[in-house]
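[Meeting: bench + compute handoff]

Bench side (C.D.) handed over the final construct sequence. Compute side (W.E.) agreed to return the predicted structure before the next meeting so the bench team could plan truncations. Sequence as handed over:
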Amino acid sequence: QLRLVESGGGLVQYGGSLRLSCAASGFSLDYYAIGWFRQAPGKEREGVSCISGSGDLTNYTNSVKGRFTISRDNAKDTVYLQMNSLKPEDTAIYYCAQWPYFYCTPKAPRMRSWGQGTQVTVSS
């Protein structure tokens, strides 16, 4: 079964850190960009960060620049999102998704696959 599995979410205090993982099961992530998205209650889903298939190109939404870092280990078929200096407004369900391309694109296309999501809650 081909799927993405997120982990690493949880409850953290303002200013704390979490590292999310997105692991591929049943397929390789090597040739595809991977993105992180989040959806807070009552809000639309937004793109957070994306990393190219080789890991050499990354991008971030403005609200997380300087605080979040995306990385990948293709040998482990896993993508990470290191989140530092967390704020209550970062509270959301975080999803990873597989781009159908090697590189990220400004507009998210129809993704090859999505994970089930992991909850991140930041208390003030």
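W.E. noted at the follow-up: DSSP finds no helices and eleven strands in the chain. C.D. will use this when planning the next construct.
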